């Protein structure tokens, strides 16, 4: 079979859901999938933010964008989220588990049980449950792609993000486990993202980050759109023989 990149990367007729899709990397990925032809569901805690992003996507791409308010850290809310998506769209071909959080703390002794549970809930428990619910339906329908947005912190944990790093390491593990459980029809992969210059980065000390970035091969942080190519690859038929993979997009961070 001859590889046709235009056909392989085309998502026309497919439906994708991006959690945490109203800002940061999730927003960039949602726009990218829509530009490739997919209708998209934008799921995040704040409905107004989801609605704003959905309106922008529809205006720019002409694809349908559906905003749904959901807290992925709440196990009991995820059945309802999935049900809403299937009732409104009839199908789901791509799930992007992007929603994440990493609250600031002073020292590890200051990490409360509540903070720890919240970080694990959003970054690991939610993707586990959503992948189980959606993956089962994808398998019944004959296929689909699940993409977990992990972090370089999973393999290079810094003191300021230990709970987050632990959750993302777990996300890498369930990526491989779900790939085996849901194969051969459903593919499950992860993007292990490095440091990206999203809205969160506006609070960083520019000089301190510039010094840290000197240790990256590309000597800079990534722009949100620079993760879209990998997400599109994993969402599309271009990655038909890729599953259980944790692929790094980090500008060559040590």
Automatic annotation (TrEMBL):
Family matches, as InterPro entries: KR_dom, NAD(P)-bd_dom_sf, Sc_DH/Rdtase_CS, SDR_fam
PROSITE patterns assigned: ADH_SHORT
UniProt cross-references to Gene3D superfamilies, sorted A to Z: NAD(P)-binding Rossmann-like Domain
Keywords recorded for this protein, A-Z: Oxidoreductase
Domain (Ketoreductase) ranges: 14-200
Family (UniProt): Belongs to the short-chain dehydrogenases/reductases (SDR) family.
Protein name: SDR family oxidoreductase
